[in-house]
Amino acid sequence: MRFGLVDHAYLCFHSAEPPRDVEWTAFIDDITEKGDEFEEMLVFSFGGAPTVVQQRQVASLWQGRRRGPRIALVTPSAVARAASAALNWLLRQPIKTFTPTELGTCLTYLELTLSQREEMTSKLREWCRELGIPFTPPG
Questions:
Q1: What confidence score (pLDDT) does residue 23 get?
Q2: pLDDT band at 91 (very low <50, low <70, confident <90, very high)
Q3: CB-based contacts of 48: which residues, under 8 Å, 6+ apart?
Q4: Mind giving me the DSSP string for 14-79?
Q5: Quick count: other Cβ atoms within 10 Å of Cβ 119?
Q6: Can you say whether the dihedral through the CA atoms of 101, 94, 84, 43 is positive or negative?
Q7: CA distance 10 to 27
Q8: Residue 2 scores a pLDDT above 80
Q9: Which domains does the chain have, with CATH numbers?
Q10: CA dihedral sign, ordered 59, 61, 108, 130
């Protein structure tokens, strides 16, 4: 799992494995600390989806805020999409899902600037390389 601010938007990246608790705790701590610095969040997953307990933690975080970010999930995984649908029951603003081939449409949905799109795509490529995932995001 990788995550962080990328040009005033937030990017979260999952491999095919579910997040380990230590990773998830670090992620929750990071978005708690930086939550006022972004209004858009892109979650890119190769199938790794949060556990039910992890879903409740993030839902609780967003429910405690007046307004959560616009969130988009890009994944080829039906399991990750189902986890997203379950999480939507707990969120004020639902997560919109896309397939990897719809990354451009996803970035448009998030209303990212050209600079943000380029930075997000560059970071996705970097994280895929770091984790040895044979995927190159379109764009």
A1: 95
A2: low
A3: 1, 14, 15, 16, 17, 18, 19, 80
A4: E-SSPPPHHHHHHHHHHHHHHGGG-SEEEEEESS----HHHHHHHHHHHHTSSSPPEEEEE-S-HH
A5: 18
A6: positive
A7: 11
A8: yes
A9: 2-131 (3.30.750.24)
A10: negative
